[in-house]
Amino acid sequence: MKAIPVEAGLILAGTLFMLGLISVLIRRNIIFMLISVEIMLNAAGLAFIVAGARWGQPDGQVMFIFILTMAAAEVSVGLALILQLYHQLQTLDGDAANKMKG
Amino acid sequence: MEKYLWLVPALPFAGALILILGSGKLTKGISGFIGAGSVGLSAAISLVLGLQFLREPATVIQQQLWSWFSVGGLSTNFALHLDALSMVFIFVITFVGFLIHLYSIEFMHDDDGFTRFFAYLNLFVCSMLILVLADNLVLMYLGWEGVGLCSYLLIGFWYKEEKNGYAARKAFIITRVGDTAMAIGLFMLFQTFGTLTIQEILNLAPQRLPMGSETGTIIAFLLLGGAVGKSAQLPLQTWLPDAMAGPSPVSALIHAATMVTAGVYLITRTFPLFELAPLAQNWVGIIGAVTLLIAGFSALTQFDLKRVLAYSTISQIGYMFLALGVGAYSSAIFHFMIHAFFKALLFLGAGAVIMVLHHEHDMFKMGGLKDKLPVIFWTFLIGAGSLAALPFITAGFYSKDQILWMALASEKGNIWFFLAALIGAFVTAIYTFRMVFLTFYGEEKTHVGHPVGALITIPLVILGILSFAAGFIELPHTLGHFTLFSDYMTAVVPATELSPGIESTEWLIQLSAAVLCLAGVGIAYFFYMKRTDLRAELKSSMIVTNRFWYSGWGFDQVYDFVFVKPYVYLSSINKNDIIDAFYKGIVSVSNFFHDAFARTQNGVMRWYIMGIVVGAIFVLSIGLLFQ
């Protein structure tokens, strides 16, 4: 089996990360923002896997499992916050939550 | 008795503390009792000490109370030093001070600030006692500034009138000029001697400072600067006439009897330094001679009873400086003591006159008080006679005559000093009796209010007796040759060295002084009693001179033009303070950035994320660029 070149894996991870980042910046719906953050997390995970494969070390996969766990925790907290936000503001617009400004 | 010396300044201080803390709670009776009583006790202690000194003038009482501070090579003790010289001063301060306190109880009785007045007065007495009892120059400086503060507070005692506050500030600021010179003098003394204890400096002076050395001369001139400021001598004399804005007892105590003679004390105390700087000592005499003439002529033209006395005080202190300048220290101190008696008497008398005439200060609106106020008249007449030095019968004659004689006869004296003193004596007689004739003779022009009580007349009578009798403790060679006072003073200051072969002329000088004095009285009588019609004519023929003298020889105008106007102009330019501009700049820059960053905190989460991204890109690119 021919190994995938490291550059290709990193470019994919970078592209995914940028996509996630851009959608966090342009989306107003807070659920989509949460999904975009997940994409960015997975992009980072993918970069770890690629790097781990390049060096033939298990550390990359260890880090990915760690990221998965953290993402799960983050999603649960994030969803709870979204629920609260929806209860308070009756909307899913992230920009509406600017009550603490200034 | 010696171990109670510390009580002399401590009692008035305790009185001042009680009066300040109890202000508003004490009745007038209690305030007066505490105020006068504390000084009275001090006077009693100093009287007992004085009797001891009369038996043994060479006694020196040293009392170290505590160590004040010790920094580097300078360790300063709170220590008192009483010798024959300071004895004379504490006697005058406490005794005359006590009489003036008694007088004030009645004089200030209807004033709202009664307790405050006595608190200030007690604090003044305490500061003045510290000044003359100080063992070292630092402690003396404490007293020196203390009396300046009290003088400021008391001149501006009736602070509701703006001009009183102005007079108070003027007195404070002008004396501060002299005090600064004195402070620099103290620094130089410390640099030269490594100590500020007066006796050590005086002992070391002949070794460290050669005769006429530059350092010694500068130090002597700086000390003279301090003395000139405090004693209202040329060129810092302009504050004293305005200081008459204070109540009359204040003028009597501070601006006649005690504080203004602090300069005389300072120079007498440090006389070896002046002996080693003949130039500076000569200038002491010159300043005295010029001041006594200038102030004497100014006194001739004043309307305000108290301003006449103020100029006369400047003039009489000029006599003391003249005596110090020719090395006649004992004569200066003798004149100080006699002057304290008769000038306090005159001020108290003037205060009483002004009080019964409902605050009328203008002498030309007085008159005819001779029969209405007999006690005040007779005591005032004795004081005036003493000031004018009426021959043979008054104390002032003996003290002033000695200065006249010394001005000529001393080795350091000369004919010019003598002539200035002689002309001064003539002018003094004229203005003194002009004052007496205008105030007490002629017809009554202002209605006399209620008569004065015993608390005012008793101090007047006691001071009157002293102004009359105190002169007989020192009689010249030609008249009895009784030298109690100068013998007493030799414990501290040397006898004056006379020029050889001059003693035979002493009677001639006394005769000329006596004749001139009587002639002055005669002139005053002629113009102000006999031919009052000639007065207007004389005035109009000399109107320019008259105005010039009235304004105190234009010193105020010159100072106003040279110092006050430019200062006010500069401060009006710099109203917003150039230095502040820098700090205001810092404030506005911080404010600008605060506003800018506060605007970024808008609560929009995507904006924050954008911030993080930009920051990350920035950090990463720096990392890539400088790897």
Distance between the termini of chain B: 89 Å
User: Low-confidence parts of chain B lasting 5 or more residues at pLDDT below 50?
Assistant: none
Kindly provide the radius of gyration of chain B, computed on alpha-carbon positions and rounded to a whole number of angstroms.
29 Å
Strand arrangement, largest sheet of chain B?
1-2
What structural category arises from helix and sheet content of chain B?
A: mainly alpha
Average pLDDT rating of chain A: 89
The span between the termini of chain A is 58 Å
Report the total helices of chain A.
3
Oligomer: heterodimer
- Describe the largest sheet of chain B: 2 strands, antiparallel
Q: Can you give the helix content of chain A as a percent range?
A: over 70%
What is the H/E order of chain A?
HHH
Tell the overall outline of chain A: elongated
Task: Give the CA-based shape of chain B.
Answer: globular
Task: Briefly note the structural class of the backbone of chain A.
Answer: mainly alpha
Radius of gyration of chain A from CA coordinates = 17 Å
Q: What is the largest interface, and how many residues per chain?
A: A-B, 14 and 10 residues
**What is the helix fraction of residues of chain B, given as a range?**
over 70%
- How big a fraction of the residues of chain A is strand? under 5%
Described by strand count, sense and barrel closure, the largest sheet of chain A is: none
Question: What's the helix and strand layout?
Answer:
The complex is a heterodimer of chains A (102) and B (627).
Chain A: H1 6-26, H2 30-55, H3 59-89
Helix pairs in contact in A: 1-2, 2-3
Chain B: H1 7-21, H2 28-55, E1 61-71, E2 74-82, H3 84-107, H4 114-133, H5 137-155, H6 162-193, H7 198-208, H8 214-230, H9 239-242, H10 248-257, H11 262-269, H12 271-275, H13 278-300, H14 305-325, H15 329-356, H16 374-388, H17 395-409, H18 415-440, H19 454-469, E3 474-475, E4 482-483, H20 484-489, H21 506-530, H22 533-541, H23 543-550, H24 555-573, H25 578-600, H26 605-625
Antiparallel strand pairs in B: 1-2, 3-4
